[in-house]
């Protein structure tokens, strides 16, 4: 084969994936469940484009001539840089600021769609993935933050995960107060302390203590450098981890107010709890932060039992909209990682994995009768039944039925010359046929039995198929 006619290898770029009808149907059902909860809370949908002006993305804007570090970017005819959205929050901030005069305040919205990260892909880490967000913009009080936590809990319940999750909440202001009280001032040391606190669930207080000091060596011998705090500094942080919050702290007051609302609405600590170990991307948040953690065990790549972990979270980000407007604009929200949550639902049996039911297939037994077959298909479609005429080139009956099987068709409609002369049709129930075939071991017996096949009058096509589908 010459270079000119060399075939292109069909392959995906790394970090992307194709989705099958079964995947799409199952995730679509999950998204519909989440949407109903959001709308029950009074949130409305809004959709922003995949591309934003790169400067809109704010903290994700890289300092390079071609801004492709972290985001996928291109330049338009006006020489303006545009980027595929990195998340759904920055576009919301732009949308709110651009439509400030006409939108209600507070503005309550939800958004669902793909986001893109120009990062190195890995196992379970994609460059394109779906998020489902809800946000309240323009509400400054902890009531809006508490509502987000309660809505997250209700979403988990609606998805069949009751008893398998906990929504954990903390406050950036509390952590800032702890760092200040401990005398931690450098950004590098602050980040090391927060990373140590974030490991509380994983390593316990002793592990956090090591990470606040010189560092920690794990079972394999790998060493993680610590924050290098003095014993006195570490004691302040450890007091906080043990449940002793800093005195006279605005964040503590806000968490207390949120707890009062949880108690009043009947959300106990088994569903929502205040947890000092919740850190999340703290450079982004200005107040309460929260995350949904699934508490059931799964096995990691080493065969060890581990908690499934976080499937979403968020917090208060009062500074983001203010990038576009002079006045302060408070905002709070959360984001669900759709793919990760779908994986969790598969593991718990709460996500349908069956292929969607395909169309009824009208077989083409005689090419010169396609108009008759097309009429049958049209009758079924007008009755609201998924249907198609076989459009392949083969005349072979078995191959046409095999095609219908691959389409997950519930039935095929057969009209040969003999049926046409008698004014009848043969209906082959593929679901019943598969079940009956399992009990028949002899091929000749199977052919003679023709399991799942029955005869109807031509004029009874629609009611017969409707009855068959209802029984299936």
Walk me through this protein's architecture:
By secondary structure, the chain is of the alpha+beta class. The chain has a domain at about 360-470: Rossmann fold (3-Layer(aba) Sandwich), CATH 3.40.50.800. Helices cover about 35% and strands about 20% of the residues. It has 15 helices and 18 strands. It has an 8-stranded mixed sheet with strand order 1-5-6-13-12-11-7-10. Strands 15-14-16-17-18 form a 5-stranded mixed sheet. Strands 2-4-3 form a 3-stranded antiparallel sheet, with no helix packed on it. A hairpin with a 5-residue loop joins strand 11 and strand 12 (about 305-315). It is elongated, with a radius of gyration of 29 Å. The mean pLDDT is about 90.
Largest sheet: 8 strands, mixed
User: Mean pLDDT, rounded to whole units?
Assistant: 88
Q: Tell me the name of the CATH class of the domain at 360-471.
A: Alpha Beta
Total count of helical runs of at least 4 residues: 15
> Can you tell me the residue ranges where pLDDT is under 50 for at least 5 consecutive residues?
none
Helix content: 25-40%
Return the structural class.
Answer: alpha+beta
CATH superfamily of the domain at 360-471: Anticodon-binding domain
Question: Which strand-content bin applies to the residues?
Answer: 15-25%
Strand order of the largest sheet: 1-5-6-13-12-11-7-10
Cα distance, first to last residue? 51 Å
Shape: elongated
The strand count comes to: 18
CATH architecture of the domain at 360-471: 3-Layer(aba) Sandwich
Oligomer: single chain
Rg? 29 Å
